[in-house]
């Protein structure tokens, strides 16, 4: 082939390469979830999904680690582990999670928040602002927060206790006037058992040095971004614990205790 024809084909070659890139075909509207909240509630904490795999499905999300060793925050493609000793580390791709939810975040709707509110008021405010409660939403809140209260849970030993008991050993950390991001999701009530119904938020500071599962906060002026998801992909653990697990029971009270209850005061 003559060099001049090669040059003429060059733009076409670039187009073909772009069309074949791994990100071009990704479904940005899909939530990807490893395991279920019911499995976590009954103590199925063995990590089965690698973070390399999670990263293929999202750049934003929350979750936990093998043996429930801390709280996971994914933001802008970097995944962090907030441990019960208060330290925060980037996560190795080879680490595994027993439960996580991720999405490629696209900040479709921006809602400026003004005035002051705690976490309960924020959740009630959001419920009145959302056009429907029947879709999944990824939620990102950027700001300098007057108060942030987070927790992290230490790694558990086998035989694993249920999540409510494990969470009773949580470490709680409180910060004032801290800049960072609240990362979370709203799950419709009909998905109870699959994920925590309603809101589930984690926090990470702008310097990526502190973070955890959000128990309470004070939010003044902040920017809230909403990203609706119409699709959900669940990867179920392929192991005996999940296969034999007593799932699908009514875990309502345990769920409240584990994720919202003991430290909201
Ligand atoms: Zn959490």
Give a description of the structure.
The chain has a single domain, classed as 2-Layer Sandwich (60s Ribosomal Protein L30, Chain: A), CATH 3.30.1330.80. Residues 10-25 have low confidence and may be disordered. Helices cover 21% and strands 38% of the residues. A hairpin with a 2-residue loop joins strand 4 (71-75) and strand 5. The protein starts with a helix and ends in a 6-residue tail after the last helix. With 265 residues, it is an alpha+beta fold. The protein is built from seven helices and 16 strands. The structure holds zinc ion. Residues 62, 71, 200, 202, 213 line the site of zinc ion.
Number of domains: 1
Shape: globular
Rg, rounded, reads 20 Å
Average pLDDT rating = 90
pLDDT under 50 segments (min length 5)?
A: 10-25
**Oligomeric category:** single chain
Individual helix count:
7
Tell me the β content.
Answer: 35-45%
Structural class based on helices, strands and sheet pairing:
alpha+beta
Strand order of the largest sheet: 6-5-4-3-8-1-16
Strand count: 16
The main β sheet shows up as: 7 strands, mixed
Please tell me the CATH architecture by its name.
2-Layer Sandwich
Distance between the termini: 75 Å
- Any ligands, ions or cofactors bound here, and which? zinc ion
Instruction: Determine the CATH superfamily.
Output: Hypothetical protein, similar to alpha- acetolactate decarboxylase, domain 2
One letter per element, helices H and strands E, the order comes to HEHEHEEEEEEEEHEHEEEEEHH
CATH class: Alpha Beta
CATH topology tier name: 60s Ribosomal Protein L30, Chain: A
Helix content: 10-25%
